[in-house]
Write a structure and sequence with these properties.
Blueprint (H helix, E strand, L loop, with lengths): L2 E2 L1 E3 L2 E3 L6 E4 L6 E5 L6 H17 L3 H16 L2 H8 L6 H25 L6 E8 L7 E8 L4 E4 L7 H13 L3 E4 L5 H13 L8 E3 L16 E5 L2 H8 L2 H4 L4 E5 L4 E5 L8 H15 L9 E7 L3 H13 L3 E2 L14 H15 L3 E4 L5 E2 L12 E4 L8 H4 L6 E7 L2 H9 L4 E7 L3 H11 L3 E7 L18 E2 L10 E2 L9 E8 L1 H8 L9 E2 L16 E4 L3 E2 L2 H11 L4 H4 L16 H12 L7 E12 L8 E12 L10 E11 L5 E12 L9 H8 L15 H15 L12 H10 L29 H21 L5 E3 L3 E3 L1 H18 L4
Parallel strand pairs: 1-5, 8-9, 8-11, 9-10, 11-12, 13-14, 13-20, 14-19, 15-17, 18-19, 20-21, 25-26
Antiparallel strand pairs: 2-3, 4-5, 6-7, 7-24, 16-18, 22-23, 26-29, 27-29, 28-31, 29-30, 30-31, 32-33
């Protein structure tokens, strides 16, 4: 039987012991063996702290976000084989989708957050700058850097893929290397996904390691700066947290443990209402998805006392319709538990629940294409606790399977009190259309819950469900649930980051943070900052504008244009008792006038105003005052661009408006989209002629079989096709891929060297030469390039077919020619 290999210190290593046999949860057949005996855990942790930390922490947050995306795309292409293994864990197709593609989705989400909101630096400036001196020469702020250690991540058996990826998404993005320790059960699925992560070649050396089997004494070697993330039982979690190596060192510990989650049906949600039907559906789903093996599953069903019978009947009928059996069968809606060991443990907990509460539903016991003898199947079980304030077993014992307990309540006060008797839960839900009931119940139960999910007819269609943790929201809970926090958007990174206060002069803070601080030195030059590409802009680049004197007419005209007739701008007789001496200029006029002073009218790399982050007005501006503006590049944010957008970044500009007395009247931060410099040549005829002057008959090709003249004639044919001479008769790219190919024209990725043009002869031969020599070919090419420029000026709406990219307009043809010319000019070493 195959032994699962472990991946530590950069090698795939097999354990030396007998290992743990792993079985198919549906058929009982052995699948693999997990074994960690003989592994040097001390060396593994040291390898992560040294090699892994050095490689990951030196990357920028932006680049680590791009890394997550590349890994997720690589895994997504190979998902079919993961599903085939997931069925062996007892998971249905839907269960597997949540685990597998839910995991990939977490990587994609964090990649997107990084590329939109995190800096292109290895550190992250957290919060605003604090002025901590009277004259502003001494400032303070905070930066976040990767904690210098390794993260040991111990995952549960219920989500072999998502459990690994949701933890790695934040640790890898934070720049902290990780050792993944999945539960042995289902680890054969984790192992295959992990293998592909390594094979992708995207992750730097030492970033991740994998231990498939028992953890042994791995936690004996954690030390200051390391972290432990644990998902599992509270009992085990508390033992790990109290280990001398963890408790005695500065080891960060995050626990996500047991959770007796509840769902509350509103007092008004009687049978026949949308909320009653939604409640039954939600409870059934949470009892049967993953066969109830979810840390967020509904364990306590809190129902108005007058509706207990209705809910019991409706839920029993819904569960009757849920067919149990082999996940590979189309009929199956609920699979098995992950193994016989877990079955015996759930059964033990069911018997404990029976000691104090009544089992009112035990399910249908028929299986689809499976047997109870071979698989780990269990029918759904519904208990009734008729006195939930006296019988505490329902609030103390969690059967981690398709098991839940009904309990009655009288009013919102009782509903919240029952919810809190779980002593800390990951999630509690309220299904109601009564906003007063929802509001009163939710804030009263919030202290004992990590998440509150409200469901009713208004959000049902788009709801993600009671049991679905989302990457952008915190996953964790107080008390019994472990007191931990995972994900939660960018907040999830803080667990892995060291926060450090930085103090110094404005110039020192600018040097450290790469963000301009007021009072720091400005850099003035003859080139307008708006005429610089994103790569050329430097933090501190500044512009001092000419002055503009504000007039009475300005104030009156802005009132009329904006319809802002606030009395302070229009009625001098109403100013008694105000802060104004006379009618004052509108604040937004001052900001608009400032923009008029600092913008560059000439077309340049600045694409658009992206937003206004903050704006404050400090002193009134009256008619007769003269304003001057200082524009300074404050911060640069790299930006991922999709589809048919110009590759660009965001530049934040500090706008300081002063009056004739040098008093600051307005400070704002504006954001602009600034184009990145294209790596492709400019299509101007003069530029192309200059490049071609270096091409001779003897110029060798760096790749491919073309001669210099064949290359020029090939480019000329491309220009003629863009003029419709002749009109290409077909596009070789399948319709379903065409949009993706056209989108690729807009990015800055070069054309591949090994791409074979589909319209050229398939035998690899090249077309016969048309012109008598290279000089004639050059001249004809330039003449047709001139025609191209004129043609699209006269016919800006024209579209013509391209053999690879389909029908292209003026903009797309220009982008295509830029890439194509650059590709072949580089082929002959001309640029």
């Amino acid at each position: 039987m195959e032994k699962l290999k472990n991946y530590i210190y950069g090698q795939w290593i097999e354990g030396t012991g007998a290992g743990i046999p792993l079985y198919n949860a549906v058929t009982g057949e052995q699948v693999a063996v997990s074994d960690t005996e003989g592994l040097n855990f001390e060396q593994a942790l040291d390898y992560g702290r040294t090699v892994g930390y050095k490689n990951l922490s030196s990357m920028t947050f932006y680049d680590r976000g791009e890394m997550l995306k590349k890994v997720a795309l690589y895994l997504l292409e190979r998902k079919k084989k993961y599903y085939e293994l997931s069925y062996k864990t007892g998971a249905t197709h839907v269960d597997s989708w949540v685990d597998i593609e839910g995991g990939f989705g977490t990587f994609f989400t964090y990649s997107g957050l990084a590329k939109r909101m995190l800096p292109n630096t290895p550190f992250w400036v957290d919060g605003d700058t604090q002025k901590i001196s009277a004259n502003g020469t001494h400032l303070g702020t905070h930066i976040l850097t990767p904690s210098e250690g390794v993260s040991v991540q111990i995952n549960a058996y219920n989500f072999p893929v998502w459990g690994m990826l949701e933890k790695l998404s934040t640790s890898l993005l934070a720049g902290v290397p990780s050792i993944v320790k999945p539960s042995p059960f289902g680890s054969y699925l984790t192992n295959v996904v992990f293998q592909d992560m390594i094979e992708s070649g995207v992750l730097p050396e030492g970033a991740v390691q994998l231990v498939c089997g028992e953890p042994g004494n791995i936690l004996d070697y954690v030390q200051d700066g390391d972290s432990v993330l644990f998902t599992g039982s509270a009992t085990t979690g508390r033992k790990l947290k109290s280990l001398p190596s963890v408790a005695g060192n500065a080891v960060r510990f995050n626990m996500e443990a047991d959770s007796l989650n509840c769902s509350i049906l509103g007092l008004e949600a009687k049978p026949g209402t949308p909320e009653f039907d939604l409640f039954i559906k939600e409870v059934r789903n949470e009892m049967t998805t993953k066969a109830g093996q979810k840390c967020t599953a509904i364990r306590r069903i809190i129902v108005p006392e007058h509706l207990i019978g209705d809910v019991q009947n409706a839920l029993s009928k819904a569960l009757d319709q849920t067919k149990i059996g082999n996940p590979l069968s189309r009929e199956t809606r609920m699979g098995s538990l992950v193994g016989r060991q877990q079955y015996e443990e759930v059964l033990r907990k069911v018997n404990i629940l029976k000691s104090e509460t009544e089992l009112v539903y035990d399910g249908k016991h028929e299986l689809v294409d499976a047997s109870y003898e071979n698989g780990a199947f269990m029918s759904p079980k519904l208990f009734l606790n008729d006195k939930p304030f006296e019988k505490n077993i329902s609030h103390d014992v969690e059967a981690f399977g398709p098991v839940s307990t009904l309990m009655p309540y009288k009013d919102a006060e009782e509903a919240a009190a029952l919810a809190k008797r779980g002593k800390g839960s990951l999630v509690g839900s309220i299904v109601s259309h009564d906003e007063n009931f929802i509001a009163e119940t939710s804030w009263k139960m919030a202290s004992q819950h990590g998440r509150i999910f409200v469901l009713n007819r208004d959000n049902a269609k788009e709801s993600t469900g009671h049991g679905s943790p989302l990457p952008t929201l915190m996953h964790g809970g107080p008390g019994r649930a472990g007191g931990g926090e995972e994900m939660g958007g960018l907040s999830g990174l803080h667990f892995f980051l060291q926060k450090t206060a930085i103090q110094g002069s404005p110039d020192v803070l600018k040097a450290i943070t790469k963000i301009y601080q007021q009072g720091a030195e400005k850099k003035f030059s003859d080139k307008h900052p708006f005429q610089k590409y994103f790569e050329e802009v430097e933090v501190g680049d500044s512009l001092e504008t000419a002055g503009r004197t504000v007039t009475e007419a300005d104030i009156v005209n802005f009132s009329n244009v904006s319809w802002d007739h606030f009395y302070a701008h229009t009625d001098a007789t109403s100013l008694t008792g105000t802060i104004f001496d006379k009618t004052v200029a509108h604040g937004y006029f001052i900001l608009s006038a400032a923009a008029g002073l600092f913008v560059s009218g000439k077309k340049g790399p600045v694409i658009a105003n992206y937003g206004l982050e903050e704006c404050s007005f400090f002193k009134p501006v009256y008619a007769g005052d003269t304003i001057t503006v200082y524009l300074t590049a404050k911060e640069k944010i790299n930006r991922g661009v999709k589809g048919r957008n110009i590759p660009s970044g965001v530049v934040k500009w500090l706008v300081e408006v002063v009056n004739q007395r040098d008093e600051v009247v307005c400070v704002a931060t504006i954001l602009t989209l600034v184009a990145k410099q294209s790596p492709f040549i400019d299509l101007s005829v003069k530029n192309v002629q200059k490049i071609l002057s270096g091409l001779t008959e003897s110029t060798p090709a760096l790749w491919g079989k073309m001669s210099p003249q064949q290359m020029i004639e090939h480019l000329e044919q491309g220009v003629l096709v863009s003029l419709g001479e002749p009109e290409a008769d077909k596009c070789f790219t399948p319709e379903e891929h065409l949009e993706k190919w056209q989108d690729s024209l807009y990015n800055h990725r070069a054309m591949p060297k090994d791409f074979t043009a589909p319209f050229l002869p398939q035998d690899g031969s090249l077309p016969e030469l048309i012109h008598k020599n290279l000089d004639a070919a050059k001249q004809s090419f330039i003449d047709n390039l001139k025609r191209f420029v004129v043609y699209y000026k006269e016919n800006p709406q024209a579209e013509h077919m391209n053999f690879v990219f389909g029908k292209l307009n003026k903009e797309m043809w220009e982008l295509m020619h830029k890439k194509h010319f650059t590709h072949h000019f580089e082929q002959f070493g001309l640029i």
